[in-house]
Model the fold of this input.
Amino acid sequence: MLNSSGPRTLIAIGLIAIAALAVGLLVHDAQGGLIVLIGGTAAVLVAAGTGDPAPIPSSRPADKLARGPANVAEVLESIIEPVLIVEEGRVEHANQAARTLLGGHIVGEDVRLAIRHPAAAERLTADRPPPRRAISLVGLGTLDQRWEMRVSQTTDKRRVVHLIDQTGSYAAERMRVDFVANASHELRTPLASILGFIETLSDDKAGDDREVRGRFLKVMFGEARRMQRLIEDLISLSRIEAEKYRPPSKPVDLAMLMQEVHAELADTPDQRGADIISDIDGNLPTVAGDRAQLSQVLHNLIGNAMKYGRPGTPILAKLWKDQTGMVRISVSDEGEGIAPEHIPRLTERFYRVDSGRSRALGGTGLGLAIVKHIIERHRGRLDISSTLGKGTTVSILLPPTPAPARSAVKLPPKGVVIET
Done:
């Protein structure tokens, strides 16, 4: 098969044929002319066959092999975090996440104006290649946001700026630090009181006075009990968090559980036990739960209402199935109420609206945090509503136990009669 040089090959063969004819006429030797013709033609064909092969048409156009700016933009848009490409100090490309964070006008703008942060300016415009380590940007976007900026350089001297949101990680770390600090403070305060009274009692004069000694021992016992409650709550919270992703599966009769909790709290020396009123729906499905943890939830919620409600006012604990099919528990008191700005933070560990009053009433600051984690483990929901001067209502919604699937009825064999 002839390739693209076919016309030149035919001309060469034609010239060889003429030369062979001339040889035959001049020397009157037809055999010699035939040899010249065959040999020359073979040489031409071999030479033509060993040339460069014709290019094979590509199945992909050249523009698909060389990725252009449109394809770069598509790649950037598929990244959920803010990414910018900077060329000669100006923003050449920015994905949607970057435009949302920094503004839609940043494309074509000086990168120092696009990312207005002192710590970022040198890294973005320095002549030397940027270092690999990331830098932290505080306040970019909003005052509370924290970003990690990484800058790399391509072979054509462009810079790729990648912003990673670290706000959640910082908040989690801050919560951990605050938790350790608060726990240390809550334990240190009663411990310091106990140590102070022990030191006073070691004095001969105070130790010999029976009345003083009895008063001091009573305070020490109260502080020790406070430490014990705090340690128990810390252990309980740790255990609940460890089990958070293992939903309980045993059926729990909440009506019976609420009656038991009511009886326990009404029998305490606290006069507020007589103010508890239980309103329980008699036709309730069971819930899939951990009975001990749900008992702890009821104790914490009714206990809070007893502490913070006004003496002599009713504490209403209701249990019913609402219109959505969920099992709902609500505990209401007629206390001073809670200001709206405090409500979102009530489930934070150690958060108190009134620290002094809470400690005086024996609160550890962990009760609602424990309730929140238990309800999350049970795949439920916790709601808190309050009106200043009127009181507070805490509501819990729990999914009922799924009804068991009906098994197929097995019919007796034909001809067999079962008497009933």
